[in-house]
Specification:
CATH class of one domain: Alpha Beta
Largest sheet: 4 strands, mixed
Low-confidence stretches: 20-77, 83-103
Strand content: 5-15%
Strand order of the largest sheet: 5-4-3-6
Shape: rod-shaped
CATH architecture of one domain: 3-Layer(aba) Sandwich
CATH superfamily of one domain: Glutaredoxin
Helix content: 55-70%
Number of helices: 5
Distance between the termini: 198 Å
C-alpha cells in the first residue's frame, strides 16, 4: 500500500511536472509564437519600410530622371535656340550680304550697265541722228529731180535717182519711136555687158511722158534691154530741161549723162557713141 501510494504520489508529481512543463511549453510556444508574430510584424514593418524606402528611392530616381530629362530637354531647347539664333544670324548676315552687298553691287552693276546702255543708245542715237542729218544734208544738196519718184516699168517698184547715191549712174533719155535711140541703147547694152559692175547702174528715161509703164516694158522686152527703164513725169522732164538745157528733151540727139557717186553730174553728151566711149565716160565719172 505504501508502495502504491508512493507510486501514486510519484505519478501525480510526474503528471504535475508534465502539466507544468506543458503549460510552460504552451506558454513558451505561445510566447514563441508571439515573438514570431512580433518578428514577422517587425519584418513586415521592415519590409514595408524597405518598400517605402525603395518606393522613395524609385520616386527619387524617377524625379532625378525627370529632372535629367527636363534638363536634357532644356539643353536641347537651348541648343535648338542657339542653332536657330545662329541660323537667324547667318541668314540675316547672308541676307545682309546678299541684299545689302550683292544686291547693291548688282544694282550698281545694273545701274552701270543701264548707264552704259543709255550712253551707248545715246551714242547710237547721236550717230544715227548725225547720219540722218548728213543724209538730209546730202539730200538737200542733191537736185530736186534726183529726189522725185520714178516707177520701174517692168517691176512696178518706185525709186528715185538719189537711191543710188554712192554708185555711178548712166542715164539715157530716150523715146520708143526714136531709131537713133535704139542704136545708142544697143551700144549701151554692149558697154553694160563688158562692165558687169554692180556699182554702176544704167537707167533709161522715156521722154514720152504720156505712155504707160506696160508699153515701155514691152519695148524693153522687144529690144532686149534688161536694165531699168521708167517713164518721166512732166515735172522731172521740166527740171532736167532746166538743169541741162532744151537739148535733153530731143530724143534723136541721143542725150545722156552720168551721175557721180557723190550725186554730182557730168555735162550732157549728145550723139551716138560706141560702147568703148560710153565706158570711158563712166570710168571718168567714177574718178
Amino acid at each position: 500500500m505504501k508502495n502504491l501510494k508512493l507510486i501514486m504520489v510519484l505519478l501525480i508529481g510526474v503528471l504535475t511536472l508534465a502539466a507544468c512543463s506543458g503549460a510552460q511549453d504552451t506558454q513558451s510556444v505561445s510566447e514563441t509564437s508571439e515573438m514570431a508574430d512580433d518578428a514577422m510584424a517587425d519584418d513586415a514593418m521592415a519590409d514595408d519600410a524597405m518598400a517605402d524606402d525603395a518606393m522613395a528611392d524609385d520616386a527619387m530616381a524617377d524625379d532625378a530622371m525627370a529632372d535629367d530629362a527636363m534638363a536634357d530637354d532644356a539643353m536641347a531647347d537651348d541648343a535648338m535656340a542657339d542653332d536657330d539664333s545662329m541660323m537667324a544670324e547667318e541668314g540675316h548676315d547672308d541676307d545682309m550680304d546678299e541684299e545689302g552687298h550683292d544686291d547693291d553691287m548688282d544694282d550698281d552693276d545694273h545701274a552701270m550697265d543701264d548707264d552704259e546702255m543709255a550712253k551707248e543708245t545715246m551714242s547710237e542715237d547721236g550717230a544715227d541722228a548725225m547720219m540722218a542729218e548728213d543724209a538730209m544734208g546730202d539730200m538737200a544738196e542733191l537736185p530736186a529731180w534726183q529726189q522725185l519718184s520714178l516707177t520701174d516699168a517692168r517691176t512696178g517698184e518706185t525709186f528715185t535717182l538719189a537711191d543710188f547715191s554712192g554708185k555711178t549712174v548712166f542715164v539715157e533719155p530716150m523715146a520708143t519711136w526714136c531709131t537713133n535711140c535704139r542704136r545708142q541703147l544697143g551700144n549701151v547694152r554692149d558697154a553694160r555687158a563688158q562692165l558687169n559692175d554692180e556699182d554702176v547702174v544704167f537707167i533709161g528715161l522715156s521722154l514720152e511722158t504720156n505712155i504707160s509703164d506696160a508699153e515701155l516694158a514691152q519695148y524693153q522686152s522687144d529690144q532686149g534691154y534688161d536694165w531699168t527703164f521708167a517713164v518721166m513725169s512732166p515735172e522731172i522732164l521740166q527740171q532736167l530741161a532746166d538743169a541741162f538745157g532744151r537739148s535733153i528733151t530731143s530724143a534723136p540727139s541721143t542725150p545722156h549723162f552720168v551721175i557721180r557717186p557723190d550725186g554730182s553730174t557730168t555735162e550732157l553728151v549728145t550723139g551716138i557713141e560706141s560702147a568703148d566711149q560710153i565706158l570711158q565716160q563712166i570710168q571718168a565719172a567714177r574718178g
